[in-house]
Amino acid sequence: MSVSNTVRSYLEGQAIPYELIAHKHTQSSMESAGAAHVKSDHLAKAVIVKEGEEYMMVVVPCDYHVHLGKLHRLLDREVGLATENELIQLFPDCERGAIPPLGTAYKLITLVDRTLLDQPEVYFESGDHEHLIKVSGEQFAHLLGDAEPVDISRHH
Q: Name one Pfam family in it (predicted).
């Protein structure tokens, strides 16, 4: 598959040049970073949370976890992680577990960890387990649109 149709259309619509990095099949973003020889704090991953029927994307470096307590305080409400079945419905053109961290492309409210906004280049899943997309940090910030910068994650 390489790049999901949603991501390809979004990148083309935003006129963002990108590099596609092929790597061996992996099961996680941390494995992808290793396979593609990318620094883990340069690889953005998407974590999908929900409250009722409302979904939100939280974008963090792949070697970080979303701190749900901090997220609850920031939002002033409780949220939980989306289930695998919900993810399949939200991202039908992506392989399970290979969600691109572009909430705007999928019409999701997005929060982004500030540390990603300081990177000179950012890599992220293309929608499958064998390719990463590389863009400049500035282009990544543009792709995130009006995503809110936050401090709600912690290093593994």
A: tRNA_edit
| pLDDT tens-digit map of 138-147 | 999 999 999 9
What residue numbers bound the domain in which 88 lies? Answer: 5-155
Number of domains in the chain: 1
SS3 content of the chain, % helix, strand, coil (to 5): 30, 30, 35
Note the helical H segments in 5-145. Answer: 5-13, 29-35, 68-75, 84-90, 137-143
Q: Which residues contact 89 (CB under 8 A, 6 or more apart)?
A: none
Q: Under a CB-based contact definition with an 8 Å cutoff, are residues 51 and 77 in contact?
A: yes
Q: Give the bridge partners for 58, in sequence order.
A: 47, 111
**Which domain CATH number covers 78?**
3.90.960.10
pLDDT tens-place string over residues 54-111: 999 999 999 999 999 999 999 999 999 999 999 999 999 999 889 999 999 999 999 9
CA dihedral 45, 114, 137, 156 (to 10 degrees): -40
Of 2, 3, 19, 18, give the one whose Cα is nearest residue 142: 18
The C-alpha R_g of the chain, in whole angstroms, comes to: 14
